[in-house]
């Protein structure tokens, strides 16, 4: 059984290995396998003459280069991905016949792509935006794609409005400005005139839209799906990914600065975590509603602008995903992977959510042009780990060599194969839902409540989170040029919370709304990030030191930090070796020019006996900025003087090494808190 499990786990890896090629140590050839003797000079008529048309090597090289790019995704263009595996905690056969959700003894290979929604491939990682969280499970029954976001709701309720939404939030067509931002007129004009977006906007304006890391954000399937068991009984389900590091975010000021300092901040974070063996882990959870309770909720469970509050419908944790391998080639894997919510396995089915129904068409359609035709399932990263047999033939990029005469169903020459199989033999069968009604372009009246859950979200925030939301609204609407759009937007969000709307109106210079506001008082603690998991694991610590630092004691502290699974990077006046007392040498990873405080979760300042004026100035600025972002700060030895200069000593989250033996534990404890919001910034 152990060998079977290992085979299962490695099936996708082995399949991808078959396609891998290394050029290292090999002779240069053309694409036809012809070895070449020259690759620096094109063939010419004399050493100063024109290039000759017969130079097939030059033509092949340039032609391939000219066609290297494929169209980027219209949305989710900026992405980063990794391989991993999924293991089930408990048998879910009560709810579904999906085999990968029944067998706890196997690990299912997965490929996960994280992405921003709005920006182009070249945009920055840390912009305010929703994030994609798409997972491809390579199961023994075929590929299953859970195409999720880090926000559990969406802007619209019906897919027919999706082109309008995307046109509105993309750069404005007259000047293609702004990139990767919704702080402009067309987006907020859409919002004010499509008020079903209210709930999503509250999430987008919150800290959820600027995650600290891909490793520290939730994933939500957004839509209501069905689980169907072997007896044909169906359940409504929503899927959740819960990060084991908790849900944490950047500050808006950090996000702005990181866009310039390290536009690949999230990519670097994921890549380095996996390379360093600090594998990201996410637990899979499900919310389940019995079919007979579909109409018993205060909201329509098929409405993609609504959550199922976790206090009412708890999330049942059923498995864990571990990301443990980076890609070998970004283009071949991350850029060519094709997800589709219609890629399901027996036991998982759809509902009549009108947004989901549109996605079931759109995803296949968009891949046809991106990936050059209907055979994108044959690209190695998309290829299932089980064989596929059907009568589909030919087309662009066909790699399968089908043998035999027959390519049609109902035949005698091949014994009527390939042919369908019964559900008992693994055949997919759609859930037999009774459907009746008149053909009509309309929406159920149960979809008309656009504000109660937006207010629920606001009510559930802490004062700090509410301040961040208010600031985000003020920034976004402050960038809008149309006074009419500003006023409409403020009036709209008075239906969510009157105090919020009045504050925004004052800041952006429009009339305060006259609405009576919302009378919703309910809260959902699960919505606040202050109720997440807090732990120091894998957090980044900037260590500032100079020549002459206390060698033995600093070396002891750094060992304690690393033993606590923290990532330590040393910053000094110059990169390379820094000499401390007792001949202790530490290697500086960065200078103040290559590292800024926004790249770290905390700061440990040591200093040393030999510093320059510039070092002192840069160090003061570094810890001052970290302090203003509410981060933990530790200090020992000569570094303690910087706390006095900046008046930080005695403030929450500032840890001073009175005794070096007690310092690491206290500092690590502070790092686990991440931010100290009770700190007064002066």
Automatic annotation (TrEMBL):
GO terms for cellular component: cytosol. GO terms for molecular function: catalase activity; heme binding; metal ion binding. Heme binds at residues 73, 113, 162, 359, 363, 370. Residues 29-417 form the Catalase core domain. It catalyses: 2 H2O2 = O2 + 2 H2O. Pfam families: Catalase, Catalase-rel, Catalase_C. Its cofactor is heme. Residues 1-24 are annotated as: Disordered. It is an enzyme of class 1 (oxidoreductase). The keyword Heme applies. InterPro entries: Catalase, Catalase_AS, Catalase_clade2, Catalase_clade2_helical, Catalase_core, Catalase_haem_BS, Catalase_immune_responsive, Catalase_large_C. The active site is at residues 76, 149. Coiled coil: none annotated. Residues 1-23 have a biased composition (Basic and acidic residues). Its EC number is 1.11.1.6. PROSITE patterns: CATALASE_1, CATALASE_2, CATALASE_3. Decomposes hydrogen peroxide into water and oxygen; serves to protect cells from the toxic effects of hydrogen peroxide. Belongs to the catalase family. HPII subfamily. This is Catalase. It comes from Oceanobacillus picturae. The gene is katE_1.
